[in-house]
Design a protein that fits this description.
This protein is mainly alpha-helical and 479 residues long. It contains 21 helices and 6 strands. The radius of gyration is 31 Å and the shape is elongated.
């Protein structure tokens, strides 16, 4: 298609065309571009610039191109929009010759990207909910399995493995809340803004938004046709999700290496030379995805922040980052959901890791509450008791000596101290909201499951909107 020749003296040389063409990654938005063009033809018919017969034949041709994708091999056509226009000009000249009337590639590509990104965000949301459900299911099974919690990678206090799992489920739900907000930002329709400042044709932008499955119009024409700020919101939400995923992967690798838990062989590999090895390779790759996502966020922000006025071709280089992040995040959470189902805790090793030292804060609490001494004095005494345990063991004589020297008016026996510091007792005695008490873990699981149900309903509702768009787009009667 020689659309350049009116102003320019010749077609682009092939090497220049290949360098500037977006055809190599336009496949991601191919279907959405077809749908946008179909709806635009219907708009032209609505305002009297396209006959009913031309509309019907144009929609039929676009439907065929939707079902049987066109070849995108000639870089001189620049992008998917020109491929579709070139095809329609040859198939239905009355429709194809007017396809650019009242619209631009600028508003159309922004619309198609948002449509495709909405679909990708819903797929990521659904896959992530699968991981949350896997975590919550295992959390119920392990609600009473004593397990060490850490701070500074040192054993801090006894909790349960179910509590540890709900930690990541809670964080993921927070990240998915951010993804839902990014979706709302996506859900604004640029179509009808034309190249940068609107059109003299009586285009009904609210009708276009409704037909294309958007909740509202992105009103300002220059913002609509050239802004890619929404990509930062979407990629940042993906980054937040992958931060949680990376943290969880690191935790699982750490505790797998310590022998506290195990996972299915299908997620491990061995060494090419050391046959004894079971390397947690899937988790090792999973924890890198946050770095890849951060790279995409920086890449996009760097590209969109240096622009004067409206559309520039820099913006076409933004979209591959969106598709890469959505694709990598979705595949990662799907695999981790399967891995979580294979986790097995070595209950004996976990209980041993929660030794007497891990419960010292509870002993300090006991001394304060039962004997009325200041917590800081109790803390100091328990610190000395912990040191004795770590260095040479604790005896009745040493225990009484420490209590006496610290001015603690308690006559505790070593047996009583052992009972107070029993990890199972400590876990069952937690009383605060959000604690690792098994009953509280079960309550939190129930609450999170309700949130999962709400988000699944939200995904279903929005996916139905997108499906209806395709079903309606090629119907010449739906004007």
């Amino acid at each position: 298609m020689a659309f350049r020749l009116g102003r320019l003296r010749g077609e682009l040389p092939r090497d220049v065309a290949e360098y500037t063409s977006s055809l190599r990654f336009d496949q991601e938005i191919y279907g959405e571009v077809i749908v946008v063009n179909a709806v635009h033809l219907k708009m032209l018919a609505r305002i009297g610039h396209l006959s009913g017969d031309a509309l019907a034949r144009g929609l039929a041709a676009l439907r065929e191109a939707y079902r049987n994708p066109l070849k995108m091999e000639d870089p001189r056509l620049e992008d998917v929009h020109m491929v579709v226009e070139d095809y329609l000009v040859r198939a239905v000249p009355e429709a194809g010759e007017n396809l650019a009337l009242g619209k631009s590639r600028n508003d159309s590509v922004a619309t198609a990207i948002r449509m495709r990104a909405k679909s990708g965000a819903l797929a990521l949301m659904e896959a992530s909910l699968g991981l949350v459900e896997a975590l919550l299911s295992r959390a119920l099974e392990e609600a009473e399995t004593v397990y060490p919690a850490t701070t500074h990678q040192q054993t801090a206090a006894p909790v349960t493995f179910g509590f540890a799992l709900t930690h990541y489920a809670s964080r993921m739900l927070s990240a998915l809340g951010s993804l839902a907000k990014a979706y709302e930002e996506l859900d604004q329709c640029p179509q009808g803004a034309a190249a940068c400042c609107g059109s003299t044709l009586p285009i009904d932008r609210k009708w276009l938004a409704e037909q294309l499955g958007f909740k509202r119009v992105l009103v300002h024409a220059l913002d609509a046709s050239s802004s890619r700020d929404f990509a930062v919101d979407l990629l940042s939400a993906g980054l937040k999700l992958l931060i949680v995923v990376s943290d969880m992967a690191e935790w699982l690798i750490h505790d797998f290496t310590l022998g506290l838990l195990d996972m299915g062989d299908e997620f491990c590999s061995t060494s090419s030379i050391m046959p004894q090895k079971r390397n947690p390779v899937l988790l090792e790759v999973a924890r890198t995805k946050v770095s890849e996502a951060l790279g995409e966020v920086v890449r996009v922000a760097s590209m969109i922040q240096r622009r004067v006025g409206g559309y520039v071709l820099d913006l076409q280089q933004v979209t591959p980052s969106i598709w890469r992040l959505l694709r990598e995040a979705e595949s990662t959470v799907k695999l981790l959901a399967t891995l979580v189902g294979t986790l097995r805790v070595d209950a004996e090793a976990a209980l041993k890791r929660c030794g007497m030292e891990a419960g010292m804060v509870e002993l300090a609490n006991y001394l304060t509450l039962e004997y009325g001494i200041g917590f800081r004095r109790a803390h100091r005494a328990c610190g000395r008791i912990a040191r004795m345990l770590a260095e040479k063991g604790l005896t009745e004589e040493v225990l009484q000596q420490v209590l006496e020297e610290e001015g603690v008016p308690a006559k505790l026996t070593l047996e009583e101290v052992s009972k107070i510091l029993d990890p199972r007792t400590i876990v069952s005695n937690y009383t605060t909201l959000g604690s690792s008490n098994p009953s509280e873990v079960r309550r939190m699981v129930e609450e999170m499951e309700r949130r999962v149900g709400e988000l699944r309903a939200w995904v279903s509702e929005n996916r139905k909107v997108l499906e209806d768009v395709v079903e309606r787009a090629f119907n010449a009667q739906a004007l």
